[in-house]
Amino acid sequence: MQRRHAVRWTTHALLALMVTAPPLRAQERPFVYVSNLTGTTAGGRALTTIGDQTAEALDRLGAALRQRGLEYRHVVTVNVFLKDARHFPDMNTVYRRYFQTDLPTRATAEVDLPDPDALIQVSAVAARGAKQVITPPNLAAPALPYSWGIKVGNTLFISGATSRSPDNYEPVLGDVPAQTRRVLGNVGLVLKAAGMDHKDLTSCHVYLDDPRRFAAMNQAYAEFVPAEDPPARATVRAGLMNAAFDVEIQCVAEASPNRKVVIGEGQQRSRAPLSPAISTGDRLYLSGMLSAGPDVAAQTKSTLDNLLGTLKAASMDFTNVVDTWVYVTDIRQWEAIKKVLDETLPAGRPEPTVIGTPLMGSNFLVEIQMVAER
305 to each of 23, 179, 279, 317, 369, how far by Cα in Å? Predict the structure, then answer.
């Protein structure tokens, strides 16, 4: 991981972007996305411990939620990104103070962060509608502070799952295919408890400890998802919180009679078990997209062109985007990527989640994944 070199994206600038109230149209949408929250300063002093930074980041999450008329209890999923996995226990100690009942789903990974002073970065999704905690009867309750699933209407958020025994939550060891099968087996138990199954999965994040195991993961993954319309997906290399695990998968599912694969004009299906995008009618889940190019700016521009083509195939454009994730091989190149985003995307767009992490191809420098709504 490239921790020594990072582009300074100031906490104050990020917070100003995060807590600015969105336009009325975004206010009325069912989900609110808050991204890239850090907590490196408070009251004019630097915060240097994981405990202090976690508390400040979650305080800022609370402020962002209140700006939108929401509270912590409305949060349905949280992504925690740590600069160092050894901070995981201390982060959890603070995290438990903010989320004590009806815990949101969660995934935690070790990555490079845009702010070189940040030890933790948080992104979250909150729901305006009533949420239902999904507790599968045949899946042991997590020992960590998260729920297996949170359902809001027809949409289900599933925690990042690792290879754990459904009987006692203990690690189930094995190679990547074996772990992937156990992971998706557990995901299936959450889906079943919510009245769904694997065919309802719309989008997944796959975190692999070793990119060389990508093909092996895909082989097992394909056994569970529908061949004709597999969920959108992004797969990156990230450090997991337990050395026993090689893969973690975090998913969203949505039961919809209007489900269909969306492919942009001139685009082709991937050989991997994923769709370019899955439409459920009013919502479009796009896969993480990559493009070849001589440098990161060229790759970013080409990737945005591909994303726009997919959006247009669903009668949408960048103004419909509500959530964006940017995966950067070298976090030092984030400013060059941001420049292209600023030139291409509409003003007032949602702030993206930005993490530094190797991608599934040695020549790719940036991957971008989106969710859009009508």
Answer: 25, 36, 19, 11, 13
